[in-house]
Amino acid sequence: MTAASFRDSPPDKPCVTEYDEAHLSDYLRLLDAAAEGADWRETVSVIFGIDPTTEPDRAQIVHNSHFARAQWMTEIGYAYLLGPRLN
């Protein structure tokens, strides 16, 4: 995935989506950055390529919404990844 291939907010669905699966590494990076105490502005710049000084509102929305989805993945979403696939 490239920085251009993410949405400002991930889908808010009660199950894991294709978007979530495509962004698992971004979610992990967000969780790691938070665990290390990284500033969210640096995190959003590194992971999503958004400059929080020029786009502060968007940067915060992107960071907060993706971080919330990353947390959801650790609490609920992971179970969908472990279960049987419906293809």
Number of strands: 0
Low-confidence runs of at least 5 consecutive residues: none
- Tell me the major beta sheet: none
For the terminal residues, how far apart are their CA atoms? 22 Å
Counting helices, strands and paired strands, the structural category is mainly alpha
Q: How much of the residues is beta strand, in percent?
A: under 5%
Give the SSE string. Answer: HHHH
Query: What is the averaged pLDDT score?
Result: 88
What does the overall shape look like? globular
Helicity range of the residues? 55-70%
Tally of helical segments: 4
Gyration radius (Cα, Å) is 13 Å
Describe the structure.
- The chain is mainly α.
- The chain is 61% helix and 0% strand.
- The protein has four helices and no strands.
- The chain has helices at residues 18-22, 24-35, 40-48, 56-82.
- Helix 2 (24-35) crosses helix 4 (56-82) and helix 3 (40-48) crosses helix 4 (56-82).
- The longest helix is centred in the last third of the chain and has 27 residues, at 56-82.
- It is globular.
- The mean pLDDT is 88.
Keywords, separated by commas or semicolons:
87 residues; mainly alpha
Strand and helix map with partners:
Layout: H1 18-22, H2 24-35, H3 40-48, H4 56-82
Summarize this, please?
The protein is mostly helical and 87 residues long.
